């Protein structure tokens, strides 16, 4: 019973971590007309929350000195709900950007704690549960992209498509307060608490996580605009993000489940990155021939990469608490990189006049990450993550 409740909490929390990002793209044009946002300013609505997702986990070793896991979860979920409620009333570009920062801070607190929480609650089913967490996270994003234009049209205001996501956030607050296990996360000090700045493998994992997920934030930010440029509609752009999400969920759940008995995560990552690469090449070489197929391939690759890269990080350390602190560092640096990528791709769109330069950059990045994946042989985990003065420990595998 306790395990089922924990799994339910993982899903409810994850569902609230992407609507603040994915609800923006399909409603971008009416928002721009109403507020005067330019493309680079609009990129801030995605980039700033993702940067928050990077900075806050890096501060967790200090934040946890006065904020418990329980308090952090409540504060983070409440910030998401408040930001969404604010969006129901706002009408200026400055307020819209400020709401993105508030929501991003809330997501950052919750998301930074999630890998360690999953590792602690489900140590024997890590890959499968991380897949479920990733799938729920992406499902929330997909629902927001698809339903946002419908909600906006029904209520006659684009703000409704952004703000009504306060409802699932408030439900998650209630569920966490009522259903959470009463034992809090163990406290760690020093390097065990998340100070991984001097470890090369931690930096490599963070760069890897950030770059292979940069395609997600770029697609969420610009896929609807790209669709409009090729004669589509706002709803059609949202549906494309929804299609991408369906295949993200399939990738996040299916590939880890298929390869659950493999200790080596590299074959799965190579496959996911290769599928992603084909999708970006399709957008470059035949953008109108089979757009749905290219988007589906990108989505499948992105979903599998997110889940497998986090699992790869957690498996570097045996202790769930230490693995969670490493995951916080990796997400911290990684999401800073992931947040910068859509700003760069938006800038490339502005200076070049179309999205071809943006897709080229993402394709080259995926190709580079295919090569970097070679570094992550399981037998090298312990040696790579051990710092001077520490005893070597065996990696944890699921």
Features:
single chain; 398 residues; mainly alpha
Give a verbal description of the structure.
- By secondary structure, this protein is an all-alpha fold.
- The protein is built from 17 helices and no strands.
- It has helices at residues 2-15, 19-22, 28-35, 39-63, 69-87, 93-121, 126-155, 158-163, 166-179, 200-212, 214-229, 234-258, 266-285, 291-314, 320-352, 356-372, 381-385.
What value does the Rg take, in angstroms?
Answer: 20 Å
Give the biggest sheet. Answer: none
Q: What is the average per-residue confidence, as pLDDT, rounded to a whole number?
A: 85
Structural class based on helices, strands and sheet pairing: mainly alpha
Report, as a whole number of angstroms, the end-to-end distance: 22 Å
Q: What percentage of the residues does DSSP assign to strands (E)?
A: under 5%
Give the topology string: H per helix, E per strand.
HHHHHHHHHHHHHHHHH
Helix content bin: over 70%
The parts where pLDDT drops under 50 for at least 5 residues are 188-193, 391-395
What is the 3D form?
A: globular
Count of discrete alpha- or pi-helical segments spanning 4 or more residues: 17
Report the count of strand segments.
0
Question: What is shown here, in short?
Answer:
The protein is mainly alpha-helical. The chain has helices at residues 2-15, 19-22, 28-35, 39-63, 69-87, 93-121, 126-155, 158-163, 166-179, 200-212, 214-229, 234-258, 266-285, 291-314, 320-352, 356-372, 381-385. Helices cover 76% and strands 0% of the residues.
């Amino acid at each position: 019973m306790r395990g089922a409740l924990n799994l339910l909490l993982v899903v409810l929390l994850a569902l609230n971590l992407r609507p603040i990002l994915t609800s923006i793209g399909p409603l971008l044009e009416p928002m721009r007309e109403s507020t005067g946002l330019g493309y680079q300013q609009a990129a801030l609505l995605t980039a700033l929350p993702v940067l928050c997702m990077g900075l806050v986990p890096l501060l967790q070793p200090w934040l946890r000195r006065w904020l418990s896991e329980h308090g952090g979860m409540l504060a983070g979920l409440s910030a998401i709900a408040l930001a969404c409620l604010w969006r129901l009333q706002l009408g200026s570009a400055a307020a819209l950007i400020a709401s993105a920062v508030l929501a991003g801070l809330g997501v950052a607190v919750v998301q930074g704690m999630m890998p360690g929480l999953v590792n602690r609650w489900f140590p024997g089913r890590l890959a499968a549960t991380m897949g479920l967490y990733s799938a729920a996270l992406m499902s929330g994003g997909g629902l927001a992209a698809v339903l946002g234009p419908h909600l906006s049209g029904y209520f006659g205001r684009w703000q409704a498509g952004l703000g009504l996501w306060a409802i699932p956030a408030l439900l998650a607050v209630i569920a966490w307060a009522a259903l959470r296990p009463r034992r809090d996360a163990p406290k760690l000090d020093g390097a065990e608490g998340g100070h991984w700045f001097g470890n090369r493998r931690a930096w490599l994992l963070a760069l890897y996580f950030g770059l292979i997920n940069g395609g997600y934030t770029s697609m969420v930010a610009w896929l609807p605009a790209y669709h409009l440029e090729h004669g589509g509609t706002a709803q059609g752009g949202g549906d494309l993000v929804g299609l991408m999400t369906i295949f993200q969920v399939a990738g996040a759940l299916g590939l880890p489940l298929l390869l659950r008995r493999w200790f080596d995560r590299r074959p799965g990552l190579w496959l996911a990155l290769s599928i992603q690469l084909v999708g970006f090449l399709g957008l470059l070489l035949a953008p109108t021939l089979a757009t749905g197929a290219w988007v589906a391939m990108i989505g499948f690759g992105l979903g599998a990469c997110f889940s497998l890269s986090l699992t790869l990080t957690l498996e570097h350390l045996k202790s769930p608490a230490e693995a969670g602190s490493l995951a916080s560092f990796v997400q911290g640096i990684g999401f800073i990189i992931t947040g910068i990528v859509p700003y760069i791709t938006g800038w490339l769109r502005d200076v070049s006049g179309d999205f071809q330069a943006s897709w080229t950059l993402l394709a080259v990045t995926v190709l580079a990450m295919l090569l970097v994946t070679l570094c992550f042989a399981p037998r090298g985990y312990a040696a790579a993550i051990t710092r001077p003065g520490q005893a070597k420990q065996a990696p944890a595998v699921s």
